[in-house]
């Protein structure tokens, strides 16, 4: 057998525990079984621990993965191990919480020691929010690398809940104790009930309220038919304490005059009246819709929530309390919580009633005795009288309620032996002191056995009244202080937790005793250790020199803090930001928040607060401020540029608000257009201020249409101006806020008056042009018919003359023959000129039929049409584009250009013609003909213009004019380049 032990250690090399392993060298399988058994054994132990235990992986590649958890951990988080193991916090909880856990784990490994997290909230999957405290222990491998993080968590939710309940119980106990003490001290009822009301408002977190006694009329049985008058048998409410909620001078005067003596309320058709008439609690968290609610006078503070509680004495309804406007409303738990308070109110009112009735019939001494008797009867404290030997003479009724023994039972036993054995000697010595020092008063706390055989904590205040002829005994006033003891224990535990928290936070927690009459008199009670890190001074220094805090404040901030310190405390607290100077001369920014702690009387007890270092935050704020200033400067610059742009636009630009029809903005062009010098004269005014009623209504209807439909309005409109009608192209666009609501519109109007006038002139010119075209058509008709007829006659008669001459001798006359040939050729040329003019005219007036045109196909057709037999022509055809145009006219372009190249390339063998396209889409036709002089290029496309003699090259001079007319009608242009004797190239580009 080989024995190995894996040591798991903390970062300080302290042994945490050993995990033994045994290996059977001869039987590996048996070793694995033993190891598995050992692990199961450990898992079983861990599973049944009363606290939650879970282990996380500390290796960087699997950091934070859960490796193990026990049953208690599954119960707290609400998940079983199969749902958790192998996952990290990022798989199980929200990102913010997961990041916090991960940061804690990293810091734990970095510090190398276990850390305690005294209290934090987690969200259980099946138990809601839980409060836990956790200890995290880092474990390392042999190379001191993080290996495991063991976490031990305790669920303290119930403990925290108990603390809260204890605090609430202690609060109500203090209020009851104060009222009883004031009653014993013969405090004026007005003061007692006012203090009682203040405590009630604090206990319920209410804005205002009252404590009242329910009184009935003197005769007859109570009945509730009439509720607005004080009549026989009618109950009504008389206040013993009521919050001053006066809202004007009249109600303030009424309160001052009536509140000290008690205000009476007879209208029972109200929420508080429902308490009186039913005798049950009334909870109204929505008073406005509650049918039991009465009306409120004008000016009365709002009533957002109401709680009315009756209180009884011996099953008799004697009074009620009413509170209003608790921020969270009211519920049945609060009603149960206030039951002891209501009992105290009932006892006090009953006691005051008894006292008042006795005062009417008895002398002052008898009244005092009755008051004492009433207190003994109704007080929750025990009043006892013992003789010199310690034998019980008298117990007040409260003794039986608390101890369980009757007076007779206790008189038959030695009550001293009911004191806990551990407390008897101490209590006996205290009471013996009264016998030897009769003038003393003792206070002693001890445990006392009840009839139920349980010990309870009792506090007794005793005095020697043996020589008082009216008493002749030792008087002891005892009260049950179980809740106080529990509260004190909880308070001690709370103080311990507070100190642990205060000493581990990065902020400075501080407490200072201060005098309200002299705020400059201060005494430091507590300053947390973070003071050393932030201020640079030892906290002990502040105990010796309480003014050190103000001395460290930067001189530029000190006067402000000193001046506002008391003033802000009187208003409930302060929140200062100031700079301090540390001993090394460095500056730090501090945020200091403090508030006064007061007694029930309203006097200050001390001031407590929290100070944190916000230097980095201030630096970030300054950087943000700088960036904001730069941004504002840029925005201002862009705004100025935008305004300049809008003011330089030729269009009217304006913004109109939806609710008021006001001009929120307009540019200078708009202001001047409606007759003002500056746009500031228009902005802020409505459309009704500047336009006639008719025009304002017209514009308002347009604007409302945009606001209602939330769609852009586009219209062309005519607006009358003093100098005549003007025409505008207007757009009105809805503007929306971040909620998608239309709050205004943006309008732009372009003055089209000149354009409209131009269109009108153009229409007139078009009409004239159409008339001219009609005349041209008539002229073309004349050319086609009237001019051709004489030519046909000339041609016919020349042919007839030729035939006649052939029969005569004149045919041998060369001049005659020449004259005839000249006449014939001239008539033929005249026919060609007429055909060219007609073609040129038709090209200019023919309607274009646009379609996609494949120029390669067009060129091939043109080549086929112009090719001549017996002429050697070489065509070099490139790849031409497909264009949008009139196919027939474009074919005419290529026919004319190819014919032109062939005509001026006569004598070349072969004739070379290239038809191709440049990269930018320019098409060209080039030849190797005679070319032309470029100084005459401007005459090239004019009708009847020829750059060569008719003798050398026949033609009419119309072909290139037709080409140019077709190209222009396609939105393009044509030009030519040439060198004499080296050919010519014609370029054209279509749009």
Which tags fit this structure?
991 residues; alpha+beta; 6-stranded antiparallel sheet; 29 helices; 26% strand; elongated; disordered N terminus
Overview of the molecule:
It is built from 29 helices and 35 strands. It has a 6-stranded antiparallel sheet. A 5-stranded antiparallel sheet has the order 4-3-7-6-5. With 991 residues, it is of the alpha+beta class. It starts with a strand and ends with a strand. Helix 6 (157-184) packs parallel to helix 11 and helix 28 runs antiparallel to helix 29.
Give the strand order of the largest sheet, numbering strands 1, 2, ... along the chain: 10-9-8-13-12-11
Distance between the termini: 100 Å
Helicity range of the residues?
Answer: 40-55%
Count of helical segments?
Answer: 29
Rg over CA atoms:
56 Å
- Label the structural class: alpha+beta
- How many beta-strand runs? 35
Strand proportion, as a percent range, falls in 25-35%
Please state the overall shape, judged from the principal axes of the Cα atoms: elongated
Nearest-integer average pLDDT: 79
Describe the structure in brief.
The chain is α+β, with helices and mostly antiparallel strands and 991 residues long.
Walk me through the topology:
Elements: E1 2-9, E2 15-23, H1 28-47, E3 52-57, E4 66-69, H2 71-77, H3 81-84, H4 89-92, H5 95-111, E5 115-124, E6 128-140, E7 146-155, H6 157-184, H7 189-204, E8 208-215, E9 236-242, H8 249-258, E10 264-265, H9 271-278, E11 282-284, E12 306-313, E13 316-324, H10 332-337, H11 339-361, H12 364-378, E14 382-386, E15 392-395, H13 398-403, H14 407-411, H15 421-436, E16 441-449, E17 455-465, E18 473-480, H16 482-502, E19 508-514, E20 522-527, H17 530-535, H18 539-544, H19 548-552, H20 555-570, E21 574-581, E22 587-598, E23 604-613, H21 615-648, E24 652-657, E25 663-666, H22 668-673, H23 687-690, H24 693-709, E26 713-721, E27 724-736, E28 742-751, H25 753-806, H26 814-845, E29 850-854, H27 855-866, E30 873-877, E31 882-886, H28 887-903, E32 911-917, E33 923-927, H29 959-969, E34 973-978, E35 984-989
Parallel strand pairs: 30-32
Antiparallel strand pairs: 1-2, 3-4, 3-7, 5-6, 6-7, 8-9, 8-13, 9-10, 11-12, 12-13, 14-15, 14-18, 16-17, 17-18, 19-20, 19-23, 21-22, 22-23, 24-25, 24-28, 26-27, 27-28, 29-31, 32-33, 33-35, 34-35
Helix pairs in contact: 6-7, 6-11, 6-16, 11-12, 25-26, 26-29, 27-28, 28-29
